[in-house]
Amino acid sequence: MLNIGSIVLTVEDIDRAGSFWREALGYVNRGEPGDDWVILDPPDKAGWAAPGASLALSITGYPQHYPPRIHLDLYAEDQAAEVERLLAIGAREVDWDAYPEDADWIVLEDTEGNRFCVVDTGAFDRT
């Protein structure tokens, strides 16, 4: 059976992107970052094949595509507080006019222009 091991984001600046995502997710470097690659793991991940998706950052030289074909959904119990925190560490709001009236997510982008959504888990039906 397959599982997601790493999600790879294209970045322009490994240090800047690594700092953002470590702070945003509380992840840690798996090993010493290279000039063009770093893998970030959940802090309690027992090994590279253990459950829990890692986030890899890669400098590829390819331009960003808009809209991107893939993005992360980050779940938040306190969406407003998490959005405020993410903006304070370098995220940017995305001017996006396609929100439905009952949207439970907010679209942001990281320091490299990779988009992600902060989803309000309080909006989920818990039954």
TrEMBL record:
Query: Which PROSITE patterns does this one have?
Result: VOC (PS51819)
Under the heading InterPro entries, the entry gives: Glyas_Bleomycin-R_OHBP_Dase (IPR029068), Glyoxalase_6 (IPR041581), VOC_core (IPR037523)
User: Which segments constitute the VOC domain?
Assistant: 3-121
Cite the Pfam families for this sequence.
Glyoxalase_6
Matching PANTHER family:
CONSERVED PROTEIN, HYPOTHETICAL FUSION PROTEIN
Protein's UniProt name: VOC family protein
Q: Per the UniProt entry, what species is this protein from, by scientific name?
A: Microbacterium insulae
